[in-house]
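Components:
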Amino acid sequence: MNLLDPPSRRDLLKQVGCGFGYLAFAGLSGLEALSAKSSVSPGLLEPKLPHFNPRAKRVIFLFLHGGVSHIDSFDPKPKLTEMNGQPLPFAKPKFTFAKTGNLLKSPWEFKQYGECGQPVSELFPNIATCVDDICMIHSMVSDFVSHGGAALQLHTGDGILIRPSMGSWILYGLGTENENLPGFINISPPFVHGGGQNYGSAFLPAVYQGTSIGDGGTQFVQGEIPNLTASEKDIVQQRRQLDLMKKWNKDHLQTRTYDARLEARIEAFELAFRMQQHAPEALDFSTESKSVLDLYGIGVEPTDEYGRQCLLARRLAQRGVRFIQVSHSYPRNYWDQHSKLREGHEKNSKKVDKPIAGLLKDLKNLGMLEDTLLVFGTEFGRSPAVQGKDGRDHNPTGFTIWMAGGGIKPGIRYGATDEFGWYAVENKMTLNDFHATVLHLMGLDHTKLTYRHAGRDFRLTDVAGRVPQEILTQ
Amino acid sequence: MVMKFNLNFTIILIWSAMVLVSAKTGELQSKPVSDAQGVFFEKMIRPLLFEKCVTCHGSKLQQGELRLDAAEYLRRGGKSGSVVVPGDASSSLLMQLVQGKADLQMPPTGPLNNREIKVLEKWIQDGAIWPEHTEVRIQNSEAKSKISLQPPDHPDLKKNLQLWLKAESSKLKDGEALSSWPDISGHDNNLEVIKNGLQFVKISRVHERPAVRFLEGNLVSFSKDLLKIRENPTFTTVFVGKFGLPTEGKSQYAEGLKGTSNQPFIISMAKMAGNPDLPTRFYLNGQKFPMVSNRNSSISDVESFLNGVFLNAWSVKGDLSEVVVYDKALSEQDLRSIEGYLAEKYDILMPWNLDEFTVDFTEKEKSFWAFQPVIKHKTPNVKDKTWSTSWLDDFVLEKLEEKGLQPAPPADKRTLIRRLYFKILGLPPTPQEIEDFVNDRSHDVYENLVERLLNSPHYGERWARHWLDVARYADTTAHDCNCVMRYAYRYRDYVIRSFNSDKPYDQFVIEQLAGDLMPGKSDLQTFIDRITATGFLILGPKALAEQDKEKLLFDIVDEQLDVIGRGFLGLTISCSRCHDHKFDPIPTADYYSLAGILKSTSTMDSVEAFTSKWQEWPLIHLLRKRFPEKISPPDYPPELNLARAGNAAQSSTHCEFSAEKAIDGVFNNFQQTEENDSAPWLEIKLGESGRIGLILLWNRVDTDFKKLSNFQVSVLTNDRQLVWSEVFFPDGEKYPVPAEGFRICPPSGTKGQIIRIQLLGSKKAKERYLHIAEAEVFSVGDCSKPPEDPLMVMAVKEGSQIPMRIMVRGNHESPGKLVPRRFLQILSHEGNPVISGEQSGRFELAKAIASSNNPLTARVMVNRIWQWHFGTGLVATSDNFGKLGEKPSHPQLLDRLASYFVSSGWSVKQMHRLLLMSSTYKMQSSIRNPRAEVADANNRLLWKFPRHRLEVEALRDAMLAISGSLDRTMKGSIFDYKEKTDAIDHFLGLFSAANAGYEFEAYQSVRRSIYLPVVRNQLFPLFKIFDFADSNAVTSKRNDSTVATQALYMMNSLFVKKQASRFAERLLNLKVEDENARIKLAHLNTLGRLPSALETNQALAFLKRYHQNKNNLSYKEQEFSLDAWSSYCQLLFGLNEFLYID
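Structure:
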């Protein structure tokens, strides 16, 4: 479905009207259209009309877990350098994660890049070359000082109550473009700090939950989707098994009162069989050229692993997956430098800088950046004051997230923190605002995307959320 | 659950407040607030002030001596004087500050944006109107005549103020003796101590405020000046304090006053005793008691205390926080204003606090169906007299006949037995059981089967799981740390036991809320069950690393209210946290009335550490006290216990008191050692030298973060000569003492008189507080035996009774008015008793919920039972009986069922019998009825039995049962939490977690699914895919989604493949005539019926040709191989006929 030119309701109904019969035929005869439209749980996953013209068809959310220091990466503070070692001249937040001391200047130099002149530190020399495509949001605020709450709020809008993940909401709102693959995929998600709740569907139907490929604790080599592992050698036998199963399921259906669930389940097996054939192709990099692999830093250390994750994200994006999250996360990677800021951040940035820039450039080369929203996110920033000897504490009161593509105005910065980088002071952007913006770019009005549960209509943005028009392309 | 709504459509604008300032003159005046002004303030101004100013100018911090969180503070201004000139924004300091026109720029975090500045400007220009508590619905007329509160030295009264004693003005340190209690009235009427010094108490029991403690034998006197008042014809005294009063019988001090032992009160007395008409009164717990005027010769404590002011000495026991004396009789209004002032200050509930929030509900609210009493409706007349088996069927048939529909014919016996087995046990019938049932022609064969199934222990496993969905059961805490709640399983086992024993539901409710407070004698198991049941309150998800501990505690209460409300009452109570419920008659005040009960209950063991810890404690000590004859130290006759009361003594570092760790196996008075002590110790002195055979050491609380390790145990002689010592667990946290205990056996022949346990290592000892250690000493012992199970439970305790205030907008940092602890007003039919301060009130709450007068509890539960049988409840929203919930499809039937439920003694099994025996239950599910399909597509009227998809537990259990692998062991934990803690528990091993792969051993278990751990942050993948309950809140109904990942699981997962191949092995091992017989058995096992001839042929063909085309082997050899059979069995597991119950 071309979302920029949404089909009429009648068109949609017509397509859906082909229904299971059509799809069963497609499955049997080996027809495997990339965007097979079926509805396994009736209506749940079929493409739905957005509220208005979307700017993006899909989201790739890069989650840098642990808290990337904004003041050491994209939000330089000359005053901090100047007052290095002195106390902060105003009050620190009431609740902090740890005790902090005096101000600590950034160990990295900043330079201005691109036509926009956005400053970037030495940590991200490759992302620096992309700043003209990026919108930096320097005024993010979160409500939680510890990782669990903050990560949950970033992913679900709430750090206390259990809410559906952003990806689940989007899948619920828009359905999927390709049912041969899950619509919401998480590459190497963390299993701490909310773990599965970060990509769970909570009270939304389970069909909207994220599917994991790998996890934060396992070296990512070649992705694998659980239970999508039938080997070549028994595929013939499995097909036979499924054929008889289908026959008997159909006989069963004939003798029962009509029940959409029974029919849907027959289709679910067919779909699963097709997925099984599709997924390996999506996960297989052998058709990618050397130059593309190089762009992502694949085959070279220390970029190989995250490069693979990013390239997989692009391949899934090409195949119609709505929401793809690529985590650089606990326990193997974390941006949580309570001490040894320099070593930790340097080690991390060397792993991700090139792959991220590679992904952005690749999307651009392929003409996909226009309708792909790329988000660089973290649960909070870090304190301008030192923790211990050489670390920084968590700082949810002001930090940076950046976005690119999919309707985002390129080469701009939005919002600002104070002169030390502690508090967001200008155009404060809450996580509700952030979520409202992501939904908006996907063509969804965050106030209208609701789900009735436990006596009320729930939203990703609860009762708040604002879309800053300044960061949108016209 | 926090529910926030936009204020513009939620505030109920009934203003009680008066305006504080006049727009014209900028002076104090009273003027009514218009609705529009109120809305503007609540919507635009209050949030702005709270967000931008109150952090530094609020209850915690008062920078520049300025507060901006209440009208009175705004009025008062700060160090720089008034900040707002009503009606004149440009002259207001506040505007200058936020616009950067003053020297200071406010807020320091960054300037306000233009919109915010404009809003503020408009507000000041319009008179800076600040209405009070606009979100609270105040309907009581008395409350509208608000009492203005005045301090004792208010200008109008100051000249008559003769004495003002205020404990908080003392600069003494806690516990210090007081020789004189200075008068601050300016008259120097100090209270002088004649005999035995008084004691200053920094945090007294007068709601944790400072007080002066009077003990027996204290003798005090006043100055002569004050005593002159005695001669005055009129005078007034007001006291704030707390004395022990007899708790039994009628009070001799005030009429109607039942004794109290631990509640603060206010006593006001005007004029001298002897005149019975004077307003002398006693305020306690929101009630006003007139003082008994007819005082006879018995001089009581209080009387002597009251009289003592006018004698020159008194003798009284108790804590006094404040004493005020005037030399005239105050007017009623003045007196109430001072009483009110003191009550506010000391959080003492006054009658007007109750009145203010007593709501007169509208007729519409009161007449809502769910709040009407349950009526035992008459059985309706139906046309078809032949179909019904009982009144239940008549109610169903009535609705069908109204629509001109007919019930489906009865299902055949094969369908029925499969339906019954899965509904009641969650397990499939065996082929033998099916054949026996089908071939049994006796008339009561169905009834007998129902009875047999209800008596199976596996019934409890099936139905407990339904309840666990409501109770949001899980084995980990979720959120940031996802810690293992190791003893949650005991609650689960309790639920299984309760269903199996058909515990009356009302009792089941009470036990879960207040089992620990239930009076009366009980046997050992009942006692254990009741304590364990309260784990229900702890099960919820918790953000243990939340650093704002007040918020943490409040969020826990909120979560508990959500589960209590939706679980038991079908009400979304927690919607009222921030504002009156938008749809249901639940005022915010009621929310806080309930919150007060739970706030006075201790769910958390400690919130001091970085990571908070829930209540988890050994039950054994309590049991030893309650059941000494049944519970004695294991294996050891008491005479071998060397630490006996009267002989042994204890002490530890930095303690003035004895440590009391284990004398006669009794443990209490835990004394925490100081943090900075690097090697704290604990000693048990045995009194006489003896042979030390065994030292048994436990962790009092098995916390994941504080465990006894790296310590030295020594045996010393009386003069502290070392006899023997050894260091245990030197590598710290790696091998801490387990909760279950640790046995230390000194070498045989070791004799000594003192046992010393000393923590070693660095100052990190605070991680391993000694106070968690408990030791027992025996003369002989056997180290080869496992230590006794201390029976750890996860259960709440009574907490300190904390007065509850409304949190304005649900924000715990902006406390509003005091509310009484009591039950929901809309459901209170027998008055609205306020809970006394003696207990948290959980028991009263539980009784109110489980009362047969409560119209909701029985309805909600019978509706759930109905839903678990028929897929959908009569009320489809089984956790919401409020206005936004669905209306019942059969309101009269619902009531009749509820009434039957109560009259059958709340017996769940009796409900099952009623439902299962009905004709409604026995209908077919597969009937075609085009007319009904149109008239009632969703089958809400039940013209057929609803087809039911197996829940994931039943699906898994059925596969295990059929494959022959199911382990039917009941109860206990299979969660070996030591394994892979890294993956579960952030703080235990996050940084060392190099490998994950994340599959617990426990998930490989072949026990029934109810015994598999529910790991909130990482649900078992099988559960996750197949719509398992969301364990974070009440799951009223499982989702029923059909997705490809489920199919993939059936096709490719190791679990399904393994069960299929086990099943195949089982079939192949059977001695049968031919493959046809095997196919027949395979069908019977999975589908409960025999295959048709066609199916048999198709199966044969499949099995024969399975290996065709695969390789060079001739398929003769490969026919009917294990592989082929496995694939065939897997196919059967994948059939809709297997997954769906007709």
